[in-house]
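Researcher: Please predict.
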Amino acid sequence: MMNQTGYTYELSSTFLSRKEQAVFGDYLGRLGLDSGVWQVFECLFRSGTRHTQPHLLRASANGKLEGAAIIIKCARYGRALFSNKTLAGMVNLVRLPFYLWLRFGCCMDMMSNPGFARDPENADKIFRGMASWLKRQSLLTVINDYSRNAGLYPDASVLPALPHGLIDVSEMTGLEDYMKPFKNLKRKIKVFRNKKGMYHRIDKKLDNGQLQMALKCFVSTAEKSLIYLPYQDLYIKVAENTSSTSIPQVHYFIATLDGEFLGYQAAVQTGNHLNALHGAFNRDLKTTYHAYDILFAKMAGFAIENGLRSVDFGAVINLTKQKMVNQTIPMSYFVLSKYPLFQKTFNRFLKLTRIQGDDQLKFGS
């Protein structure tokens, strides 16, 4: 159906074909990305679960594909809203589905995407139309985007979200430039080494043993983290798929202590950037001797050595990430519904949940 923007929209579970991907080459270049991100998204679309499925929203005009965005349909997210098992169970019992567009960065949690446009000059018009279409079609849509993009969602209810954290290395010539503000980081690295701690970089994919250790870390992190993702089941499955698929531009930064697997971070090198995909550390251990702090230095060093401009770590979800990045961008949740009263009611409901609690919002910039 054509709307006032002149585009027709279609939501499906089918990802972009190779021919369709080629349409967005110029736009990827404008964002400082490259076609390597498509392999990550292809893994995402092979990973749907019973309660969480990836969808592609296409925008067309005159029979030509003009825009696309990856949207996640979530139907079991009680634990993301409430720590209390009874309250979480009640939300899951209702199983009210909603559409989620993670519009910050690219490939955070393997699914964040800014949307893609054939003509970069028409991008905002297309994305504004997508948001309007989702609002008219769905009972509930939540778009997690930069606060500065509020103009794309004039009818949305707005709530604060965790900021987006990056390390800007564009002016750095060596790792020392990154480490200057962190007086204790050299000491932490020395302690880590003295305890037989090491970082290894694995390229393309993990072997089965490494993959099993990574999944063990996922379980540990999910059980102890302040944050539980509304798409947690999909996150784990797509992380498993990407890790077992040979993707040339994906790198795994793995921490070990005397040979024991402590945790890791996967990232895709795309265009001018190193973008985090997924990662976890074993929180059942009493200490990792600052392995997580050191991870940021390892990835920053890799980016500097390879002439990249930034390392993108996604949303700031803990104090260490807040401290170790050097750039944060404010973000918001934009809540949309075809029923204005329901939109306002759900917005008020969200204010009572853990995603608006002090434990999470303290990481706000």
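Model: The longest strand covers residues 157-168.
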